[in-house]
Structure to design on (437 residues):
């Protein structure tokens, strides 16, 4: 039976099936793009809030090789079927030329309506579309599992023949790298927002906690204020009151022999209990036991140790047991949020900008502080201070006035005390190029 337009009922049904197949093609193409482009973090957050569809999508993403296999299988089946049916209809209508017409028509429709249109929508709305297609896609994956497993086995076998491996999960290093890349991407996207830059810097610092050791941030023993236990208690009380610090190491006989850590509040309590008899104070009994940690301890491990022990102060020693310095909870927190100053802090940056764009820097200033403050990329793997970097790169103890160029920076030694570099003039790459031009 023919309709008034000259097309038979069978032809109309076939055309309807072709339209349906194109819709299925769009579904498979959009699903592939949406599931691969959707934010893992957003979907995880939705699942934590109780969104069942997000949970289903996360299950699908955890077995992405099966999902891709099912999508490709379904997409190829519907596209090939649509092409075959369109060719049959066109041959009936136009004879042998129908093959050419069918090829042109099906290709155009598949590319426009089955690929570009759904993928364009999916790439702009990945999470929304993922939540919509999650339940039906889960059913399709289950139905196609027997076939996709056989196909996947063949693919894996072929890849092994070429010495290639298929990794379904990111390793810890690649996961950290992905996080760093995401942070940098958002920092670049929000470059005009100071809050975003600050948050990004803190996130980077958190990721670095397991790579940085306490020796990189500790207060060196030369700068640590300590108390000689053999001093009269009256002098000790005066020294504690004059100090900006609340915790001071106690040593006896020699500075490497740390016998306790004196807390200013504990000392004041003892003074109050003794009344005017300060000379009778037993400082060693008042002081807390010292906590020694190796200089190779990472900041992440030390932060966790501070929390577990409920302590804020540790003494850093090297492999021979010699005291290298001290580290506090505040030092680690400053690595994350930046410098924390209070009304008692003595804030000495050790950096002074010169009119020509260079900087006069004390040798003890850490590379991490300089990199964070000025956005430099000086390596801190082999040295923790700017003076240490010059010594490491120069492979010698330089003399005053000597100039070195490392990593694009110009270093001039301004002051040296014995074998220690006290002060440097550092010219960053941009200023160094301008000066030489």
């Amino acid at each position: 039976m023919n309709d008034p337009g000259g097309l038979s009922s069978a032809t109309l049904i076939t055309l309807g099936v072709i339209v349906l197949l194109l819709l299925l093609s769009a579904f498979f193409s959009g699903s592939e793009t949406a599931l691969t482009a959707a934010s893992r973090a957003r979907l995880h957050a939705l699942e934590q809030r109780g969104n069942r569809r997000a949970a289903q999508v996360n299950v699908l993403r955890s077995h992405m090789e099966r999902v891709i296999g099912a999508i490709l299988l379904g997409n190829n089946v519907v596209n090939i079927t649509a092409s075959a049916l369109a060719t049959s209809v066109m041959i009936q209508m136009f004879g042998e030329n129908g093959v050419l017409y069918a090829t042109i028509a099906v290709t155009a429709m598949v590319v426009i309506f089955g690929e570009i249109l759904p993928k364009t929508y999916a790439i702009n709305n990945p999470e929304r579309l993922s939540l919509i297609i999650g339940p039906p896609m889960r059913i399709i994956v289950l139905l196609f599992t027997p076939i996709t497993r056989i196909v996947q086995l063949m693919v894996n076998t072929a890849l092994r023949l070429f010495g290639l491996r298929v990794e379904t999960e990111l390793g810890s290093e690649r996961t950290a790298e992905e996080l760093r890349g995401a942070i940098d991407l958002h920092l670049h996207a929000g470059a005009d927002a100071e809050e975003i830059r600050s948050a990004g810097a803190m996130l980077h610092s958190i990721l670095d906690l397991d790579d940085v050791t306490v020796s990189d941030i500790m207060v060196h023993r030369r700068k640590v204020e300590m108390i000689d236990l053999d001093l009269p208690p009256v002098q000790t009380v005066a020294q504690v009151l004059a100090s900006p610090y609340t915790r001071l190491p106690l040593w006896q006989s020699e500075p490497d022999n740390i016998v306790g850590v004196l807390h200013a509040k504990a000392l004041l309590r003892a003074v109050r209990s003794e009344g005017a008899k300060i000379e009778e104070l037993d400082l060693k009994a008042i002081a807390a036991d010292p906590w020694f940690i190796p200089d190779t301890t990472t900041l992440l491990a030390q932060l966790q140790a501070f929390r577990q022990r409920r302590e804020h102060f540790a003494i850093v020693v090297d492999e021979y047991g010699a005291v290298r310095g001290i580290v506090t909870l505040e030092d680690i927190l400053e690595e994350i949020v930046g410098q924390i100053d209070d009304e008692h802090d003595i804030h000495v940056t050790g950096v002074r900008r010169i009119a020509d764009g260079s900087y006069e820097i004390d040798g003890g200033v850490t590379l991490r502080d300089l990199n964070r403050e000025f956005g430099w990329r000086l390596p801190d793997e082999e040295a923790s201070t700017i003076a240490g970097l010059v010594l490491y790169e120069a492979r010698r103890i330089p003399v005053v006035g000597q100039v070195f160029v490392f990593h694009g920076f110009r270093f001039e030694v301004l002051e040296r005390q014995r074998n220690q570099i006290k002060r440097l003039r550092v010219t960053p790459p941009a200023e160094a190029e301008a000066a030489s031009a």
The longest helix spans residues 126-161. The CA atoms of residues 174 and 352 lie 39 Å apart. The two ends are 88 Å apart (CA to CA).
